[in-house]
């Protein structure tokens, strides 16, 4: 079983298990990691609903360029954001490793197109640093922290800000 299939299978198990509070507690400190242009990112596994292969995306007029459109996933219409474009990286043709990570923030779904899923890892609070503060005027608003785990540096994303920053919408979580 390749990494993408394994991650997709594991995600289905987490979905079922998240209904059990004991297992939910086990998800604390766990992150799904994925690649986008040779950078490793992580999002809390508790916010991951499912990982699906790339599929037909319906463009929507007046969506920002990074929002590729919407997909219909079992009757749910989900907006899809290309992480590369969201972070002002060059667009890349999708391949067999490209997938969509479906997330939920305050009962709102969004899909992130990523180059490849890496793994699910547990990261202790002691291994997470605040986002770098480059100057008093410039802070990376998409990051909630930078982690060091398994000899990797992982940029931990604030999903709400990835989705809503610059759109004028707000979430209480942001």
Keywords for this entry:
alpha+beta, 18% helix, five-stranded mixed β-sheet, six-stranded mixed β-sheet, 174 residues, globular, single chain, disordered N terminus, disordered C terminus, 4 helices, 11 strands, OB fold (Dihydrolipoamide Acetyltransferase, E2P)
CATH architecture: Beta Barrel
Q: Looking at this structure, what is the CATH superfamily? A: CheA-289, Domain 4
Kindly provide the radius of gyration, computed on alpha-carbon positions and rounded to a whole number of angstroms. 16 Å
The arrangement of helices and strands along the chain is HHEEEEEHEEEEEEH
How many strand segments? 11
CATH fold name, please?
A: OB fold (Dihydrolipoamide Acetyltransferase, E2P)
Shape: globular
Uncertain regions spanning at least 5 consecutive residues: 3-21, 167-174
Number of helices: 4
What is the distance, rounded to the nearest whole angstrom, between the alpha carbons of the first and last residues? 37 Å
Q: Provide the number of structural domains.
A: 1
Strand content: 35-45%
What layout of secondary structure does this protein have?
Blueprint lengths: L2 H15 L3 H7 L2 E7 L2 E6 L3 E6 L13 E7 L2 E7 H4 L12 E7 L2 E7 L1 E7 L5 E2 L13 E7 L2 E6 L1 H6 L10
Parallel strand pairs: 2-11, 5-7
Antiparallel strand pairs: 1-2, 1-8, 3-6, 4-5, 6-7, 9-10, 10-11
């Amino acid at each position: 079983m390749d990494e993408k299939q394994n991650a997709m299978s594991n995600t289905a198990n987490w979905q079922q298990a998240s209904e059990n509070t004991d297992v939910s507690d086990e998800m604390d400190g766990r992150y799904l990691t994925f690649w986008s242009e040779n950078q490793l990112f992580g999002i809390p596994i508790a916010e991951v609903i499912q990982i699906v292969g790339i599929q037909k995306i319906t463009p929507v007029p007046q969506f920002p360029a990074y929002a590729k459109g919407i997909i219909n996933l079992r009757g749910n219409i989900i907006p899809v954001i290309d992480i590369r474009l969201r972070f002002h990286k060059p667009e890349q043709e999708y391949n067999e490793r490209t997938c969509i990570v479906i997330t939920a923030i305050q009962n709102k779904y969004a899909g992130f197109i990523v180059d490849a899923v890496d793994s699910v890892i547990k990261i202790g609070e002691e291994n997470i640093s605040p986002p770098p503060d480059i100057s008093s005027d410039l802070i990376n608003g998409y990051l909630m922290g930078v982690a060091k785990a398994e000899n990797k540096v992982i940029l931990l994303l604030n999903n709400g800000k990835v989705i809503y920053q610059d759109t004028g919408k707000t979430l209480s979580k942001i």
